[in-house]
Amino acid sequence: MPETCRTGTIWWKTLIVVAIGLTLSCRPPASRLIEKADFKAIVLSDTHISSDTTKTRRLLRLVQKINAGKFPGVELVFVTGDVVSSVFGKYTHENPDTSDNRLRRAVSVLRRLRIPFYLAMGNHDHKIGNFRDSDAPWPQEEIGAMWELWRQQTGFAPYYSVKHRGWKFIVLNSMGGRHLNRHFDDTQMDWLGRELEENGPVALLFHHPIKTDHFRFWCKFKDLGSPQKDRRFYRLLRRYQAKIKGVFVGHGHLFVHDVLFGRIPVFETDSFGEGSDESFYIVSFNAQKQTLRVIKANETVNVN
After folding, report:
1. Cα-trace Rg, the chain
2. Does residue 104 contact residue 68 with C-beta atoms inside 8 Å?
3. Which uninterrupted H or E stretch holds 204?
4. Where does residue 123 rank: exposed (0-12), middle (13-18), buried (19+ CB within 10 A)?
5. Is 178 exposed, middle or buried (0-12, 13-18, 19+ CB in 10 A)?
6. Over the stretch 97-153, which tens digit does the pLDDT of each residue have?
C-alpha cells in the first residue's frame, strides 16, 4: 500500500476513535438520565368555586395553561380541599334547589385537563348549601351524607391513595373526625397505617393545617391539627417519618411552610379562588433521591 494511503487510513481511524470518545463523553451521567425521568405536580387549594364567576375563569385559565405546556414536566394536579364554597348555591332545607351545582362546575373544568387530577375534601366541600356554617359542630351522620354526595359528584372517595412513578400520594379527609372534636377518625387512621406500611416515598395531602415544630400562623387556632387532638395521626407520622417526604395542606389561605419532627416538610398554599393566578405550588419529585422540591412563582421554597 502506498505510504500516502497508509497515512490516510491511520488518520481516518484516529478521527473515528476521537469522535466516538467525544460522543461518549458528551452523554449525560446516569444521575442526569434519572433526573430526566422526574415529574412535577401542581398543588393548589381553596378554589372556592361559587357564584363569583371569576373563580371559575381563573381555574379554567390554569387548566388551559397546563394543557398548553406552560409548566413542563407537570404530570399531576392536586387540590387540597375547599373545591367549592358550598356544593349547591340555592339549597335550603325548605327549598332543596340543586340547580346551582358548584361541585359539578368545578369538576367539569378540571376534567378538561389532559393529565390526571385529584381532589381532597375540605370543610366547605361538606356544606350542602350556603346556610350551613362550616365552623359549627358536624354530626357524624351529616359527614357521611356529604361523603356520599362527594362520591356521586366527583367520582372520588372521601380519602384514598394513588401511585405515580414510584411515589404514593395519600389524600386524607381532615373532616372525618370533626364529630369527635378532632380531624381524623379511627377508621381512617387504621387505613392510613396500612397504607404507610408499603415501601416507597409518600406525600400526604389534606385540607386542615397541622401544628409543626416552630410557631407558624397557619389558620384559626381551633382549626389547627395538633398532637393533643389527633394523637394517632401524629404517632403515625412520627413512626413513618422517614418515608413521608412532604405534607400539603390548605384552609388558611396563606403561603406557609415549616417542618415536623425536624424532618417532614409541611406546606400550606394560598387560596387559589381568593388569591391570584399564581396561587399554587409546583412540586418536583426526584426519582433517584426520593426527595421533593417545592417551587412558588419560579422560586424554590426551602424549609429550614
Report:
1. 24
2. no
3. strand 202-205
4. buried
5. buried
6. 899 999 999 999 999 999 999 999 999 999 999 998 888 889 999 999 999 999 999
Amino acid at position 140, single letter: Q
In angstroms, rounded to a whole number, what is the distance separating the alpha carbons of residues 176 and 286?
32
Convert the pLDDT of each residue in 147-170 to its tens digit: 999 999 999 999 999 999 999 999
**CA nearest 78: which of 111, 112, 119, 121?**
119
Strand-pair category, 202-205 with 299-301: unpaired
Q: Is the pTM value of this prediction over 0.85?
A: yes
- The residue assigned the cell 393533643 is 228
Best CA proximity match to 81, nearest among 128, 115, 32, 48: 48
Distance linking the first and last C-alpha atoms of the chain: 72
Report whether 223 contacts 209 (CB < 8 A).
yes
- The count of residues in the chain is 304
Helices (H), the chain: 3-26, 30-36, 53-67, 102-110, 140-154, 186-197, 231-239
| φ and ψ at residue 195, rounded to 5 degrees | -65, -35
Asked if 35 and 84 touch (Cβ cutoff 8 Å), the reply is: no
Q: How far, CA to CA in Å, does 197 sit from each of 75, 125, 186, 243? A: 26, 29, 17, 10
Q: How far apart are CA 17 and CA 104, in angstroms?
A: 64
CA distance 273 to 275: 6
Which residues is 260 bridged to in the sheet?
A: 264
